[in-house]
C-alpha cells in the first residue's frame, strides 16, 4: 500500500510506538483512529435518538387526547421542528456515518480512512452543532416552529431570532457531512487492498460510495437554501419575499432538490446493511449482486429528479406535475428490484434468525409498506388528498424508523460482536426486537387512517374523530420509546463483557472484517490482507 | 407536565371504554368519497393504487413468509447456492414497469381533467389565507368577510380550558362565517395568501391547494350536493396552524341568491348605522365584533394573550399607553414581531377606530378614549 493515510497512521504508530489507544480523556478529542471516530459517531447518534425521542414523546403526549394539556401551540411547533432536524441530521445520518467509519476500512482491507484528521474534525463539528440546535429552545420566542422544512416566508419574514442559529447549525452539520462523504469516497477509491476491484466491494461499502456522491450533490444545495434564507432575513435580498418580487415557492424547489436525495442518503446505506445481513443468515450468497449495484445507481440518479413530488399542491403547471409523477413512480422499479433480490436471497436458503436477521426481515416487510405508501403518494390526483396529512407522517416514519433505524439496529447487532469481542445478551435482544416491532406498528400504522380520515400533520390539537387513532399512536410511541432504553443497556452490557466470540462471529458471514480477531485490534490492516484472503472472502 | 401525562395514561381505559360504548364520533378508516368529481377521482385512484399495492404485497410477502417457514435451518433446510437468474430478474423489472404504466395512464387522464379550467364559472371566490383565518371575497357580488374558528372551539382548545373539547360540536372544525357557494354550479376559487403559505383543504371536495403569497392558484369545482363540508389548513403556517378550519356550506342556487341578498341587506344596515353619530357605545359594540374575528385568535377573547407568544392587551403597554403607538401597530404592524401584521388593507377606518376604542376600554382597560375614523385616516 502506498496511500496517504498510511503516512499519518505510521506517524501515529511511531508516536506511540505501540498499537494501543492514547490514555486519558484526550483520546477521544484527538483520536484519528477510524474505529474511535466511528464509535463517537454512533454514541452521538444514540444521544440524539434519545433527545429527539423525548421530543417525539412530548408530541405524542400532547396528542394523546383532544384539547391542549401540556404545552402552547408554538412550543409544539418547535418540538415538531427540532424532532425532525435532530432525528435526520443528528441521529440517522451520524448513525450511518458511524457505521461507515467502522466498517468501510475493514471491508476493503484499509488501515484507516483516507483523511484521518479530517475524519476527527468532521465528527467534532457535530456536537457543537447539536448544542446550538437544542439551545434554540432557550432563546427569545423559543426554537423555530417552522418544521424541519423551514419554508419561507414562515422562516424568513415571520421567523423568530432562533432561525439564524438553526441555519448556523445546519451549515456546520452540512460541512461535516460533505467532509465525511469526501473521506469515505476517497477511502473506497484509493485504499482498497490489492486485488479488490471497485465492483467487488461489499454492498455496504458500495452503498456508501454512492451515498457519498449523493451527499456531495445535496448538501451544498441545502447550504445554498439556508444562506438565501439568512440573507433574506438580514440583508433584504428578497429571494423568497413575494412583496418584493421574490417567490416563496423557489425556496421549496431548492430545499427539496436537497431534500429528496437526502431521504435516499438515509436509506441507501441501510439497504447496504440489509444486503450484508440477509445473506449471512440465509447461508447463501446475495441474489443478483450486479443488479443491486445497478439498482443503487439508478435510484441515485432518479432521486435527483423527483423533488417536486413534495410540492404537488403548490400550484405547478400540469406538465411539471406529470413529469414528477412519472419519475417518482419509476423510482419504485429499482427499489422493487432490491426488495425482490433480498427475498430471492432468502428463498431456498438455510435461514437462521439471530437478532440482526430479525431486524433485517422486519426491515424488508415494513420498509416495503413504506414503499407502498410512497407509490400511492406519487399519484398526483390522490396526492391532492394525501399531501400534508398524517398519511405522509405514516409513510415517512415507515421508511425512516422501520427503514433506516431498523437497519442501524441490524447493523449494530451484526457487528457489535466484532467490535467488542462479546456476544450481546440474546434473550434481551429478542425482547428489544419484539417490543420494538410491535410498538412501532401500533405507533405508525394508525397514522395512515388518521391521514386518510382527514387529519393534517403538524397540528397541536385535533378534531374529535381522530381521537382513537391518536391515542393508539401515543401508547405505541411510549412503549417504543421506553423499549429503546433496553437497547442502551444491551450495548453497555456487551461492551463490558459477555460470551467471547471467535473471529467469524457468524458462521455464514463473509468479508474481510471477519478475518480479523475479535475484538478488532485498534490498528488493523496495517499490512494489506493477502491476495489469498481477499480471494477467499470475495469469491 | 409528567403528572398530567400520568393522569392521561390513567384515564386511558376509561376513554377506551367510552369509545367502545359508541360515544365518540364514528371512525373513518378511509378517504372520503366526497361530493365533487375531483374527490371521487382521487378516491378511485387511491383505491386502485391500494389494491395494486395489496396485490404486490401479497405476492412478495407470501414468498417471504414461505421462505421463513419452510427454508429455515431448524427444519433442516439446506442452502442452495444460486445467486443469479437473468430471466427472473428481467421479469421482475419489466412487470413493475407495466403495472406502473397501467396506473400512470388513468392518473394522467384524471390529472389533466382535474386541472382543466371551466370556461365560464358561475361564481368566483377569492380565498385569502392569513395568520390564522380565511377571508372570502366574492368580487362579482361585492361581498367579503373573514372566517374564524368558532369561539366555542377556541375556548375549549386553550391549555387552561374550562370546557372539554368533547362537548364542543365540530371541535376545531367550526367557523363563525362559512364559505357559502351554490351546489351544482361551477365555482372558481382563486386562492392566495396575505402572509405565509397556507393550504386550503376540504377532504370532501377532493383537493387541497396551497395559498402562496404572490401567487393565485385557481381551482374549479362543482359541488354535487348541498351540505356542510369541513376541513382545515394543511400547511404549517405558525402558531395558529391548527386553528384555521375551512367550512364550506353548499346551498341550492336559490338559497345562494337569497344569501347574497341577505348579505347585501346587512351591509346596507351597517352603512346606515355608520351614518349615525360615532359614540363610545357604537364603537365598543362594533369593536368587540372586529376584535372577535381578527384579534382574538392571538390575543384571546379575554385580552390575556398567551404568555411568551402573544402579549396581553389587558393592562398592556400599548393598549393603555399613548394612542398614537396603538394606532400605529394596528395599522402598520409590528416591526419587531411580524406575526403582528399590518391591518391597513384588511380593515376599514371605521373598523380600526372601533377595535382600537374597544381594546382601550374593554376588560379592566379604562383609558376613556374614543377613536374616530377620521383619526385613523390621519394616522394611515
Q: Features of this protein?
A:
heterodimer, A: 539 residues, mainly alpha, 0% strand, globular, B: 380 residues, alpha+beta, 10 helices, 42% helix
Secondary-structure topology with pairs:
The complex is a heterodimer of chains A (539) and B (380).
Chain A: H1 4-16, H2 26-30, H3 34-62, H4 73-108, H5 116-124, H6 126-135, H7 162-190, H8 203-234, H9 248-282, H10 289-303, H11 318-330, H12 332-346, H13 355-378, H14 380-386, H15 390-420, H16 426-452, H17 467-496, H18 531-538
Chain B: H1 2-10, H2 12-20, H3 37-70, H4 86-115, E1 123-130, E2 133-138, E3 143-147, H5 151-156, E4 179-182, E5 186-193, E6 198-202, E7 207-211, E8 217-222, E9 227-232, E10 245-251, H6 253-275, H7 280-299, H8 323-332, H9 349-361, H10 373-379
Parallel strand pairs in B: 1-5, 4-10
Antiparallel strand pairs in B: 1-2, 2-3, 5-8, 6-7, 9-10
Helix pairs in contact in B: 3-4, 7-9, 9-10
Would you write up a description of this structure?
The complex is a heterodimer of chains A (539) and B (380). With 539 residues, chain A is mostly helical. In chain A, 68% of the residues lie in helices and 0% in strands. Chain A is built from 18 helices and no strands. Chain A has helices spanning 4-16, 26-30, 34-62, 73-108, 116-124, 126-135, 162-190, 203-234, 248-282, 289-303, 318-330, 332-346, 355-378, 380-386, 390-420, 426-452, 467-496, 531-538. In chain A, helix 5 (116-124) packs antiparallel against helix 7, helix 8 packs antiparallel against helix 9 (248-282) and helix 8 (203-234) packs parallel to helix 10. The longest helix of chain A has 36 residues, at 73-108. Chain A is globular. The relative contact order of chain A is 0.10. The model of chain A has no long low-confidence stretch (mean pLDDT 93). With 380 residues, chain B is α+β, with helices and mostly antiparallel strands. Helix content of chain B is 42%, strand content 16%. Chain B is built from ten helices and ten strands. Chain B has helices at residues 2-10, 12-20, 37-70, 86-115, 151-156, 253-275, 280-299, 323-332, 349-361, 373-379, and strands at residues 123-130, 133-138, 143-147, 179-182, 186-193, 198-202, 207-211, 217-222, 227-232, 245-251. In chain B, the strands form three sheets. A five-stranded mixed beta sheet of chain B has the order 3-2-1-5-8. A three-stranded mixed beta sheet of chain B has the order 4-10-9. A two-stranded antiparallel sheet of chain B has the order 6-7. Chain B is elongated, with a radius of gyration of 28 Å. The model of chain B is unreliable at 17-23 (pLDDT under 50). Chains A and B meet through helix 4, helix 9, helix 10, helix 11 and helix 12 of A and helix 1, helix 2, helix 3, helix 4 and strand 7 of B.
